[in-house]
Amino acid sequence: xxxxxxxxxxxxxxxxxxxxxxxxxxxxxxxxxxxxxxxxxxxxxxxxxxxxxxxxxxxxxxxxxxxxxxxxxxxxxxxxxxxxxxxxxxxxxxxxxxxxxxxxxxxxxxxxxxxxxxxxxxxxxxxxxxxxxxxxxxxxxxxxxxxxxxxxxxxxxxxxxxxxxxxxxxxxxxxxxxxxxxxxxxxxxxxxxxxxxxxxxxxxxxxxxxxxxxxxxxxxxxxxxxxxxxxxxxxxxxxxxxxxxxxxxxxxxxxxxxxxxxxxxxxxxxxxxxxxxxxxxxxxxxxxxxxxxxxxxxxxxxxxxxxxxxxxxxxxxxxxxxxxxxxxxxxxxxxxxxxxxxxxxxxxxxxxxxxxxxxxxxxxxxxxxxxxxxxxxxxxxxxxx
Length: 385
Ligand SMILES: [Zn+2]
Hints:
The protein is mainly α and 385 residues long. Helices cover 73% and strands 2% of the residues. Among the domains are: 36-165, Alpha Horseshoe (Serine Threonine Protein Phosphatase 5, Tetratricopeptide repeat), CATH 1.25.40.10; 170-255, Tetratricopeptide repeat domain (Serine Threonine Protein Phosphatase 5, Tetratricopeptide repeat), CATH 1.25.40; 348-385. Strand 1 (351-353) and strand 2 form a beta hairpin. The site of zinc ion (ZN) has 9 residues, from loops.
């Protein structure tokens, strides 16, 4: 009898295990069904324009269900994209509070919460959330990029430098150089020569190709009447970026009274050979006109516009031709054409962003449209130099 009982024991265990599993499965099925109904109700609230009720329901669901965090993150982002930032903040704040047993999920929720705060203009709250994410290897770079956007808005350039220097992207040195230039520009009328010069030298150390730092350093030396040093830095600008030869010329013009005529002309000749820049060609034409007369200047400009046709060059050629004309009718026609070209030149922008195409009459080192640093330069070609 006892042996029979021993034989039946495995059967009893197997039956008990089966019944237990069945009961758990029934319980799980009931929960899943309940959850599906609640999600459906939440979506109904969303569709019937009752988003607050939907948010309450989804937050309640989160209390019992941490497996669907991705869905809640996506839902919060959806609210933010619709401009309903307060609801996005509620969802993401709840996620941060619920995900205590998963640092990865909690940090992801914090990153989204920081995005909500930025969208709501609560920059100080976004900053404090993002600083906590700097130790997370996966999210640190995202946090740094968002912190940079915040510091740029707040003009906190030293904080921006400290963060940008740790970025892993290739071009972060270029951005650091612009941040040093921002600091130097603020100091230009306030601080002494040494502080500004050291900021600009740091900019050039971060990015030796930084045209802006070379231009600011040249301006600083001009301001302090150190013309030889100014010319040394101005002379490097067309090498760094041929499109900036026209900007270099404006700076060189300020040094001209302190230079001998030959060295001024030889710098312009060198720049023209390198860049074929029309502003430089027009400056050289003036020198030729003063030394050799208007006909040589006209021949020089004609040769230049054959190589690099621009409206500026054409305008100067017409000016020279008008000087030599005696026929009243032809003079009238050329004068009319020249005034049309002049009007066209007056309405055209001077600078353009290589990244987004934004154009303007003044230079911006930080594109107002695409927010890139150093992407705007003087326009080249027919409408430009
Ligand atoms: Zn742009």
